[in-house]
UniProtKB/TrEMBL annotation:
<dbReference type="InterPro" id="IPR010872">
    <property type="entry name" value="MDMPI_C-term_domain"/>
</dbReference>
<feature type="domain" description="MDMPI C-terminal">
    <location>
        <begin position="146"/>
        <end position="250"/>
    </location>
</feature>
<dbReference type="Pfam" id="PF11716">
    <property type="entry name" value="MDMPI_N"/>
</dbReference>
<keyword id="KW-0670">Pyruvate</keyword>
<dbReference type="InterPro" id="IPR034660">
    <property type="entry name" value="DinB/YfiT-like"/>
</dbReference>
<feature type="domain" description="Mycothiol-dependent maleylpyruvate isomerase metal-binding">
    <location>
        <begin position="7"/>
        <end position="132"/>
    </location>
</feature>
<keyword id="KW-0413">Isomerase</keyword>
<dbReference type="GO" id="GO:0016853">
    <property type="term" value="F:isomerase activity"/>
</dbReference>
<dbReference type="GO" id="GO:0005886">
    <property type="term" value="C:plasma membrane"/>
</dbReference>
<dbReference type="InterPro" id="IPR017517">
    <property type="entry name" value="Maleyloyr_isom"/>
</dbReference>
<dbReference type="GO" id="GO:0046872">
    <property type="term" value="F:metal ion binding"/>
</dbReference>
<protein>
    <submittedName>
        <fullName>Maleylpyruvate isomerase family mycothiol-dependent enzyme</fullName>
    </submittedName>
</protein>
<dbReference type="Pfam" id="PF07398">
    <property type="entry name" value="MDMPI_C"/>
</dbReference>
<dbReference type="InterPro" id="IPR024344">
    <property type="entry name" value="MDMPI_metal-binding"/>
</dbReference>
Length: 261
């Protein structure tokens, strides 16, 4: 996968879609945001990760300093678009100059590398491009199969799996394994359950969750193209065709329902 070309291309598609929408219009997949909020969000995200890499940030304190030094939000939409292009170019340049294995801060404790940022920003740019298309009422462009397939894995391993990075948290299985089957190539086995643990504040948690598993006889399946599966897991599309044990499917649905922004 050419991550940098994808980040560039998806950002330009995002800008095209934003231009076709009212700045004050709602974003159906990010209900608290207007289109201009979405535009600013992707701008500040690219700025943040470009500075994480350029500053050599390695700790939470480093990341907080980067966040505190973020650019101010422009008043005019055109200025924000110009800033997004500049920050995207900076992000791509930083990623191009570093191998995946180089250390770099991320919010996901198991992966503190440049590779995490490279992978994450492909999916962030792709999903926000879809957000912008939906807000503008445009027909959404397909996600390339390689991107969509990795997006399914990333959604489960990282976006839904981060609960498991909290010390002492465990996933207690609920019902059976569910197979995600990509009709155009790809298969993932998911074990739904509940994340159980106590946070640093002393608060106890009992939250729906899911993890990838290596084997197991599926009790149910969800079948669609990788594009459709990817959109569903990230909260950008409807649930695909599902069959099998309904309680297992309901446990998976509970994990997916909160969505991602």
């Amino acid at each position: 996968m050419d991550h940098l070309t994808i980040i560039d291309a998806e950002t330009e598609r995002f800008i095209e879609a934003v231009a076709a929408a009212s700045g004050e219009g709602p974003v159906p997949t990010c209900p608290d945001w207007t289109v201009d909020d979405l535009l600013w969000h992707l701008t500040e995200v690219h700025a943040f990760w470009a500075r994480i890499l350029s500053s050599g940030a390695r700790t939470d304190a480093d990341s907080e300093a980067v966040e505190a030094d973020k650019p101010e939000r422009p008043v005019e939409r055109g200025q924000t678009v110009e800033l997004l292009r500049a920050e995207t170019a900076a992000l791509v340049a930083e990623l191009r100059s570093r191998p995946d294995a180089d250390p770099a801060w991320s919010w996901f404790p198991p992966d503190q590398t440049v590779g995490f940022t490279r992978r994450m920003q492909v999916h962030e740019a792709t999903m926000h491009r879809i957000d912008a298309e939906l807000a503008a009422g445009l027909v959404s462009r397909p996600i390339e199969h390689e991107v969509a397939s990795d997006g399914v894995s990333h959604a489960v391993e990282v976006m839904l799996g981060w609960w498991g990075t909290n010390p002492g948290f465990e996933l207690r299985p609920v019902m059976g394994v569910v197979a995600l089957v990509a009709s155009d190539g790809g298969r993932w086995l998911l074990q739904p359950g509940r994340w159980i643990g106590t946070g640093q504040s002393g608060k106890t948690y009992d939250e729906p969750g899911v993890v990838l598993v290596a084997d197991g006889e599926p009790a149910a399946s969800v079948t669609a193209t990788a594009d459709t599966l990817d959109r569903w897991l990230w909260g950008r599309g409807p649930e695909p065709e599902a069959s099998g044990d309904q309680e297992s499917l309901d446990a998976l649905r509970a994990a997916v329902a909160p969505g991602m922004q």
